[in-house]
Amino acid sequence: MVNISGFGLKLNIVALQTFPMGFDIESFADDADALFIDDTETSGYEMDFAGSLVAYDKAAPILVAVSVIPNSEDDINLKLLLQSRKASFKWLPIQDVTTMVVTYPDRGRVVFSNGTIVSGPLADSVLSTGRRKSNTYRFAFGAFAGAQSSRQLVVGTIQSLLGLI
Questions:
Q1: 3-state secondary structure (DSSP) of residue 160
Q2: DSSP sequence for 43-82
Q3: Is 5 contained in some domain?
Q4: CATH code of the domain covering residue 76
């Protein structure tokens, strides 16, 4: 049986200027998706005048959303990271390169690098139920590495070796 539980998920975020030692995220929201990795469109297509399909490769960012419990230590760290990227009248944004390491409960790891935080709340919202709303922060990354399972790691390594032949 395949274990699809997300209990035990852990993220580590390193931002070279703001958080060079990094910080862990473990206090995920219970009313929103804790970790959402958006579909990545790696190819495009068009129809030419003759009616033939023309496919091409294209660069595409990897979009990741993380939802955390409001006012937790993780939320405060993410707000600081977001504030460091926001330009204002007196402040220039820090040019920061962000890396995120996702560790799954079955010890699989995925590394997103060459990225940045792109959006999130600067303050907490309150729902009509009287509860603070979970805060979702969105990141964009340019590179991906790793494997979610040991099987994926082995198959990826074999494919890489066969590609050299």
A1: helix
A2: EEEEE-TTS-EEEEE----EEEEEEE-TTSHHHHHHHHHH
A3: no
A4: 2.40.30
Evaluate if residue 38 carries a pLDDT over 90.
yes
b (16+ CB within 10 A) / e for 31-56: eeebbebeeeeeeeeeeeeeeeeeee
Contact yes or no for 56/45 (Cβ under 8 A): yes
Give residue for tokens 């274990």. 3
Q: For the whole prediction, is pTM greater than 0.85?
A: no
Phi-psi region of 36 (alpha: psi -120 to 50; beta: other; left: phi over 0): beta
Task: Answer whether residue 1 is part of any domain.
Answer: no
The verdict on residue 81 lying in a domain is: yes
Query: DSSP class of residue 34?
Result: S
Q: Which pLDDT tens digit goes with each residue over 103-121?
A: 988 888 899 999 999 999 9
How is residue 9 written in tokens? 């998920």
**Residue 108 structural domain:** 10-164
Residue at 32 is within a domain: yes
